[in-house]
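Hello Y.,

Per our agreement to keep a running log of every chain we model this quarter, I'm adding this entry. I've kept the format consistent with earlier entries: sequence first, then predicted structure.
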Amino acid sequence: MNRSIKSVLTIFICVILVFTSGCKNNTKQSSANPLIKTNFILGTLIEIKVFDTKDEGIIDEAFSRISEIESKMTINNAETSEVILLNNEAGQKEVKVSPDTFYVLEKGKYFSELSKGSFDITIGSIVKLWNIGTDYAAVPQQAQLEEAVKLVDYNKLVLNKSEYTAKLEQKGMKVDLGAIAKGYAGDEVAAILRKHGVEHALISLGGNMLVIGGNPNGSPWKIGVQNPFDARGAYIGIIPVKDKTIVTSGTYERYFEEKGKLYHHILDPKTGYPVENNLISVSIVTDFSIDADALSTITLLLGFEEGFKLMESLEGVDAVFITNDKKVYATSGLKDSLTIVNNEFKLQK
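Predicted structure for the entry above:
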């Protein structure tokens, strides 16, 4: 969640482009005149666009819920953060956490196990050394990284669901929920909107997009996938979706340059360095944003071959992969619906 405003705005503007043209007024409110509100929470610019109500209180409730989640999981406010308390007590004692934080920790540990440690929510000690996305980003000393890698092990995060407690067993360990908490917040926003009867909405939290229902004209929403090699707003293809979440992660999103070399924010917990493989971008399409959030990072860490196999093995999950040589791969559930609109990119059969 500790991201620079400049990076966040860049991601928000054009990681995903939504097409809403041609909508007909066959809902309570015209699709051409939706209720739109924005806010800056969780270190990102959030936009909620609702097409069948003018009740601003519903969106305000959603923003309040996001702020509540942020206060519990931030790494920037020790007075409210349960994550900071957990990290501070590493190697000492268990910490009582809220159901919100426990759920995200539990999901994070599940995905750490699923990826066999390629994704690990106890990567906080490494993340803190790099500071990517801040004005203090720099390549850490090798000795520092080697010590930080020793502090990464999701097996040493002990969770007790009956008591809602968590403990990091080794002193110096740190949980980082930056790759998963935003997805949870998005799911909570969608739940609030649905609770109030909203049937058509678009929710954008930086690189996380959730759609409720379809376009008010009855067709699916058309979501454009960002061209990772071009200016924000350029897209390589379109995915039609209803009642889904789409999360895009890429090595191009946040990075810095030092001595002529680029260092991106997808850090390998096993080496401490930014992962290096042939993937530059992955978009996950599924039902819950917390899952898509984690899976988009996992696939980038695993690389194309392992990542593709894993995504094909998961029920209700699809993905679009873009490689450094501009090849596009889609899992079986998206091959027939993904439309490539940029001739520089080739969908592989």
